[in-house]
Design brief:
Layout (H helix, E strand, L loop, with lengths): L4 H4 L1 E7 L2 E7 L9 H15 L5 E6 L4 E3 L4 H4 L4 H20 L5 E5 L2 E3 L1 H8 L2 E5 L3 E3 L13 H9 L1 H8 L5 E2 H6 L5 E3 L4 H13 L3 H15 L4 H12 L3 H12 L9
Parallel strand pairs: 2-3, 3-5, 4-6, 5-7, 6-8, 7-10
Antiparallel strand pairs: 1-2, 8-9
Helix pairs in contact: 2-4, 6-7, 10-11
Length: 263
């Protein structure tokens, strides 16, 4: 199959000190996702997970949309078996990989995020949203349902009643509502979005990297119902083997900022 990056899109990864950014680049189609783009995202996730990055950002190009979800022209022609095996299952695999990255992840929602695009943002640990952006799960209006984890992840954030309002009644969330409901961590005017992202990245990168990763796993396990008494002692023991713990204690005693190395 011939691929035109300007039409079919691409996924790239950029690196800065302590930071990896996954870029979805299909602005002509509002960053709508295809099977090929999902596989490219999977490769980018693997690359980031294996890197020394302390924080991973999910971003996209273009002015109008973060991601409008699945490319309707690609999934509307699928039969039941293909829908199951090559579409919904693939999306779950990729989005679960985002959720299970060892580093904290931040989705930068600079424009509208609908359907699978909203589900993509929900797979991240944090969401920073432009004040002009909107969120929604409009699938039932097309005769289908959210298929990439939206019913579960949104329900975990806002509870079943509000999740049903978004999904069944197709309520579109503006930025203020998303913040009030706890769907997003922070919002900012479009011109200030970069500064808001920098703030959360700096906060996340300032912790001891091994401890941050352990704490993320502990919280995810707690959300899955695992009692903390089983895992926190093990995680604490592992943290005790790191030089960062000694550095953190020394910095506390010396009243200075710690210089964590991730070791």
């Amino acid at each position: 199959m011939n691929v035109d990056p300007d039409v079919d899109g691409r996924v790239t990864v950029t690196h800065a000190t302590g930071l990896a950014t996954i870029w979805i680049d299909r602005p002509a189609k509002l960053n709508a996702l295809t099977p090929e783009l999902l596989e490219a995202i999977a490769g980018a996730i693997q690359q980031c997970g294996d890197s020394e990055a302390r924080v991973v950002l999910l971003r996209s190009t273009g002015d109008r949309a973060f991601c409008v979800g699945a490319d309707i022209t690609r999934f509307s022609v699928l039969g039941p078996t293909e829908m199951w095996s090559s579409w919904t299952s693939r999306g779950h695999r990729v989005f679960d990989a985002i959720a299970h990255l060892p580093q904290p992840t931040v989705a930068v929602v600079h424009g509208d995020a609908f359907g699978g695009g909203f589900e993509l943002a929900l797979a991240a640990d944090f969401r920073v949203m432009s004040a002009s952006a909107r969120l929604g799960l409009p699938e039932v209006g097309l005769g289908t349902v959210p298929g990439w984890g939206g019913t579960e992840r949104l329900t975990m954030l806002v509870g079943p009643a509000r999740a049903k309002e978004v999904c069944l009644a197709r309520r579109t969330l503006d930025a203020e509502t998303a913040l009030a409901w706890g769907v997003v961590t922070a919002l900012a005017e479009p011109t200030q979005l970069g500064a808001a992202v920098d703030r959360i990245v700096n906060d996340l990168a300032g912790g001891a990297p091994v401890a941050v990763r352990l704490a993320k796993q502990l919280i995810d396990a707690a959300a899955a119902g695992v009692p903390s008494r089983h895992l926190e002692p093990l995680a604490g023991a592992l943290a005790a083997t790191t030089t960062d713990l000694a550095e953190g204690v020394a910095a506390f005693r010396e009243r200075r900022a710690p210089d964590f190395t991730g070791r």
